[in-house]
């Protein structure tokens, strides 16, 4: 139901206009199928997904009359097929702390999403340490410190302008040494086109692994590299997914700001083109406005 509320705008586009397309007992022909395609495109699901939905409907129903429920059933089936790998859980460490690195462009919702993750894991009774790796912006460290205090998590900060990799190192060490369950490491926002800054993410990633190995031999970290994407960024979110997944070895997506956008369909091509599972969705500005992503729930919410 959280999903449903969040996807309301996307659903409104799909539902109202899909009903319009089938009314008056039209036969499924090319014009009909192009209307389906155009409608799907408006949700930002991308050309490949929209084409597949159209083609699947064409295969099943060409030259026939269809009901609204036929269209919805077919579209759901197609999206489920596309997003098969999209329902992954967080990859928790088998033993010791789970180290989660968080990356993304400025303004995507990184800080808020970290607060939501902390809230989620604290609610589960886990102990959490944060690494304030955005040493570039003093305000980012301050903001994260406020959340850490409010949510009762340890936080490791460095001096302004200090090496973010050293903060990541210290946070990783603290996670193992202080027996935390979860360690979340922030990084400064950057654009996927800034290649030196993209390389830096690779370096931070390697240093986290080194730190984990120093404290606990044979560990592999980080366990997750979550890319936070702004769902309202539409197709630009796709180019971010491409740039970051290559440079930072991303393992999953947090799709923030899914509330209030008609472009919720963007989760589909992210999954289809980059094989990156959407792990969480952001549904508002408060720490509890967050949900685990689930393909079936998503598909049902999208079309119902
Ligand atoms: P950062 O620069 O990536 O750290 O972005 P912030 O976490 O500071 O978020 C930028 C803005 O987006 C803030 O005003 C947040 O309150 C807002 N925001 C973040 N996530 C969500 C979400 O899921 N839904 C809504 N509606 N707003 C969000």
What does this structure look like?
The longest helix is centred in the C-terminal third of the chain and has 21 residues, at 195-215. The protein contains twelve helices and eight strands. The protein has an eight-stranded mixed sheet, sandwiched between helices. It is elongated, with a radius of gyration of 21 Å. It has helices spanning 2-6, 8-22, 30-42, 47-61, 68-82, 110-123, 138-151, 164-177, 195-215, 235-248, 267-274, 295-303, and strands at 98-103, 128-132, 154-157, 182-186, 224-230, 252-256, 278-282, 290-292. Strand 6 (252-256), helix 11 and strand 7 (278-282) form a beta-alpha-beta unit. By secondary structure, it is an alpha/beta fold.
List the helices and strands and how they pair.
Layout: H1 2-6, H2 8-22, H3 30-42, H4 47-61, H5 68-82, E1 98-103, H6 110-123, E2 128-132, H7 138-151, E3 154-157, H8 164-177, E4 182-186, H9 195-215, E5 224-230, H10 235-248, E6 252-256, H11 267-274, E7 278-282, E8 290-292, H12 295-303
Parallel strand pairs: 1-4, 1-5, 2-3, 2-4, 5-6, 6-7
Antiparallel strand pairs: 7-8
Helix pairs in contact: 2-3, 3-4, 4-5, 5-12, 6-7, 8-9, 9-10
Quick overview:
The chain is an alpha/beta fold and 304 residues long.
Radius of gyration: 21 Å
Shape estimate: elongated
Taken in chain order, the helices and strands follow as: HHHHHEHEHEHEHEHEHEEH
Uncertain spans, ≥5 residues at pLDDT below 50?
A: none
| Sheet having the most strands | 8 strands, mixed
Catalytic activity: GTP + H2O = GDP + phosphate + H(+)
Family: Belongs to the GTP-binding SRP family. FtsY subfamily.
GO biological process, one term: SRP-dependent cotranslational protein targeting to membrane
Enzyme class: hydrolase
